[in-house]
Fold this sequence. Notes:
Layout: H1 8-22, E1 41-44, E2 50-52, E3 58-64, E4 79-85, E5 88-92, E6 94-97, E7 100-104, H2 107-110, E8 114-122, E9 125-135, E10 143-149, E11 152-154, E12 160-168, E13 180-187, E14 190-197, E15 203-208, E16 214-222, E17 225-226, E18 230-235, E19 244-247, E20 258-263, E21 279-285, E22 291-299, E23 302-308, E24 314-322, E25 326-327, E26 331-335, E27 344-347, E28 352-355, E29 371-376, E30 379-385, E31 391-394, E32 404-411, E33 414-421
Parallel strand pairs: 2-9, 11-18
Antiparallel strand pairs: 1-3, 3-7, 4-5, 4-8, 6-7, 8-9, 10-12, 12-15, 13-14, 13-16, 16-17, 16-18, 19-20, 20-23, 21-22, 21-24, 22-23, 24-25, 24-26, 27-28, 28-31, 29-30, 29-32, 32-33
Amino acid sequence: MSIGTYTAASIVISTCMALAILSFAPEEDLKVPSGFSDERRYELLPGKVEFLAGDSIRIGFHETGIESIPSKGKNTDTFLLWVKSSYGSVPVEPQTDSNNSYFQLPSFLCETAGETEVLLVVNNKITDRKMIRILPKEDSAITMESYFGPPSIQAGTADFAMLVTLPTDMYDNMVSDSTMVNIGSTFRRETSIFNIPMKNGYAWKVFPSTTTTGTYFVNASLYGFGAREMESEVHPSKPVDFTISAKREHDYADGNRLVRLSTSVLRDNYGNVISDGTLVTFEIESEQGNISKTSGTTINGVSTAQILHPDHPDTWSVRARISGIAESDSLKLVFTKITESIPINYYKLEDNIVVGPIISYMGQWVSDGTEISLFLNDNLILRKGSKEGIVNFSLSKLGLPSEKLTFEVRALGITETIEVER
């Protein structure tokens, strides 16, 4: 009986029986037993062994050794093709067409690139095997999965960015090794094209940092299919030491005007202006060792900050720092008195001490809010802010003894004394 005369029903029944057996039988058990007769032998037909992903793959088989021995009754042999691929092991049932029997591989196996082994199993025994190779369909639409990073690197010779691209065909198969991928880059208006071979499923290119700032724009393409443009910024390196300056309207200690502190243009080792937003802290140390701080961020490489004049004569030592990275030289600022004396009067009837009017360096009243303090026996009793250069201290509600008392008035770095008979 020829293979082509099997009915569909007998094939289905035979295949189901084989599947039930194979589901529990490991491959090492699928062996031709000793004493197997050569009277009936099946093998895979020779043919194409290399395909493109997505091709229809049909594998034929036939019976050998049958011509010399007459058929003895109905053929009850069962057939199955065992396919071993990256999906694992998959059984495939036979089909018939125009008196020919063959195995049609399912589409999901035909679309997966790689080495695939097929084994012809007859009556639960392997009678033949061969290898077929499925190649990526590289003439189809290519998908480029790419990464370029990090998003920013430092100027110099130590840092770098890297482009990695993984092109795949329309069935998500990796492109073959040695396939040349085009990688393009543009930096500071200079464009370069590189041909990079695929290896182990991907291609890569390292872009070293430069001593100048700018932006790398890169792209990868294959067979005219490309990925989106990607970029990485070359930022300035760490800033180096710098200088500072101060601008003020006058050098009087009026506690009112502002001192404007500024840095020089901050640059890195390669002369690049450092990035905007870099924080600079200005530290101000007074003659008494007190430290005040103010800060500012850079714009176009320059950081500025402001601080009020002191309200008493003082000498400042100013230094600026970028924490742990760079610092400036020291700048000395001297502030002088705005007046030589402070008028004080006691009015016994109202029991008030009146301070002022205090006249400043141009003959004007001192600024409203100038702080004036009243002390008795070196203890602070009252503190007020001036208005139109005058402060009125009322002693009647302080519970002071009715005797001769000596008060001190301190303001603008000046101390004046007054004796009061209550």
